[in-house]
Amino acid sequence: MTAAPLAGIRVLEVGTMLAGPYATMMLADLGAEVTKLEPPGGDISRKVGDSYFASLNRGKRSICLDLASESGQRQLGALAAESHALLVNLKPSAIRRLGLTYDAVRHHNDRIVCVALTGFGLDNGDDPAFDYVVQAATGVAALTGDPAGPPTLPGYSSADNSTGLTAALGLLAQIVSGRGGQIDVSLRDVMLSQLNYHAAAYLDNGIEPQRRLHGAHSYYVPAQLFPTSAGYLALFITHDSFWRSFSKEAGITGYDTMAERTANRDDVLELVTSALLTDTALAWEARLRPLGVPAAAVRTLPEALDDTPEMVVRAGGHRLVASPIRVDGWTPDYRRPPRLGEHGGSGE
């Protein structure tokens, strides 16, 4: 077995709820030593439930500190002196007040990387910025749902998770550079970035994105959910070769090029819908996948987990989803989440 990819990397986390803890858990899964610096009451997510906390904090250490006190600041300095990075997700005013910026800790360690994960940016105020609020504010909710109905939200925390991954990337990039410094990542900016081709179409050509039935793609046709005789099927046809294989199996003729399918969207979708209603979603998946056509029956989360037992791991007494990053020759050591103050300080 090779060493863990991030063996020897020490990361401090002052994180709450999801975005920050998810970022550092991804690093911990890759072998970094991650230490949560928790207030006397602990990360608020401990109160949500043991499974919730474990899903974001396995494999970490916990030190309980009152960062508003002189003793807490002394211990923060000692920890920062021996760490490669500090990741914080709090309001900007709290980050500055508690001395958690690069300018505040650089005298302990000028090579430390400090990541501020906030709602709107370190210099853009303290407006509340939970995941759903940011999805509403950046156009994500307006693009989601039935066009005849109200805007809606995905069933999971897409802004928090995406921002956590982005923050982890920024942290590692600055460590690789060999320089210390401040990294600023916000939920708002990450979600706007992820609207990439929609934003480009508007900025370059003035095309405002539309909410489409069954989540249809703006450019590719057919690429959306379709009803079947039992269940829904996701079909995503981009290449003309995919269309040839699908249309032959479905008994559809014509519309051989992407340009034709896009120009005749409504007609194509009517033909595809009629064809798919002749069989079940699971049957279509079984028929189309051997042909190389991207298709999947809509599954519930329990069904998806049952289909992928290799993605379920144990960390202490918890069953959790494994890291999505697989490194040749190395297997993560999934350890239980820490008890509050288990590695220093005082708990509740």
Automatic annotation (TrEMBL):
SUPFAM superfamilies documented for this protein: CoA-transferase family III (CaiB/BaiF)
Keywords attached to this entry: Transferase
Transmembrane helix as UniProt keyword: no
InterPro entries, per the entry: CoA-transferase_III_domain (IPR050483), CoA-Trfase_fam_III (IPR003673), CoA-Trfase_III_dom3_sf (IPR044855), CoA-Trfase_III_dom_1_sf (IPR023606)
One Pfam family here: CoA_transf_3
Top-rank lineage group of the source organism: Bacteria
Annotated GO MF terms: CoA-transferase activity
tRNA processing is among the record's keywords: no
Protein name: CoA transferase
